[in-house]
Amino acid sequence: MWPAMASSDGLPETARAPSALWPGVSLAGTVVVADQLTKWLALAQLAPYQPVAVAPGLNVTLAFNPGAAFSFLAASGGWQRWLLSGLALAISAYLVYWLAGVSRRDRLQMLGLAGVLGGAIGNLIDRLYLGAVVDFIDVYYGEWHWPAFNLADSAITLGVIAILLSVLRDSRSCRK
């Protein structure tokens, strides 16, 4: 899980196979481009806070979140923009470091790290340029709505799941 972690044969992952750094960073870049493109389309085509039905249980609704997940810290007066931006930069730097220590053979972990990295950078771009993250995917059931989210948020969520599955897989193989 951690950079240059020893494998079951005692060799660091980086000694056994090429690093996942460049494929991972490339995939993260693809996530950033897709995220920014979908946000650009939402900004160009949608009026703020006016839902457009796509399918039962799914709207596109342009929203802006100056806080973190689930609008945490959204009403904090603006300082959170810089705190969350700094945190995203620090996490992104660590994820690049982590990717450098992951083997290309560990595709699940590489995909997970790339998803989290791309999502973090996608939301960081919004936060730095707009002061808030652009959200537009509105999933609901009846009158209950999940907080609006975007492609970057989805990549982060799926990335964390992939990392956790990779860690569980690795912990099981270490026990054997």
From TrEMBL:
Keyword terms of this UniProt record: Aspartyl protease, Cell membrane, Hydrolase, Lipoprotein, Membrane, Protease, Transmembrane, Transmembrane helix
Membrane topology: Multi-pass membrane protein
GO CC terms in record: plasma membrane
The EC number(s) this enzyme carries: 3.4.23.36
Active site positions: D135, D153
Entry GO MF terms: aspartic-type endopeptidase activity
Positions of transmembrane segments: 82-99, 111-132, 144-168
GO BP of this protein: proteolysis
Keyword Hydrolase attached: yes
The protein's annotated pathway: Protein modification; lipoprotein biosynthesis (signal peptide cleavage)
Keyword Membrane assigned: yes
Catalytic activity: Release of signal peptides from bacterial membrane prolipoproteins. Hydrolyzes -Xaa-Yaa-Zaa-|-(S,diacylglyceryl)Cys-, in which Xaa is hydrophobic (preferably Leu), and Yaa (Ala or Ser) and Zaa (Gly or Ala) have small, neutral side chains
Localization per Swiss-Prot or TrEMBL: Cell membrane
PANTHER family with a match to the protein in the record: LIPOPROTEIN SIGNAL PEPTIDASE (PTHR33695)
Function field: This protein specifically catalyzes the removal of signal peptides from prolipoproteins.
Family according to the record: Belongs to the peptidase A8 family.
Protein's UniProt name: Lipoprotein signal peptidase
Origin species: Spiribacter salinus
Gene giving rise to this polypeptide: lspA
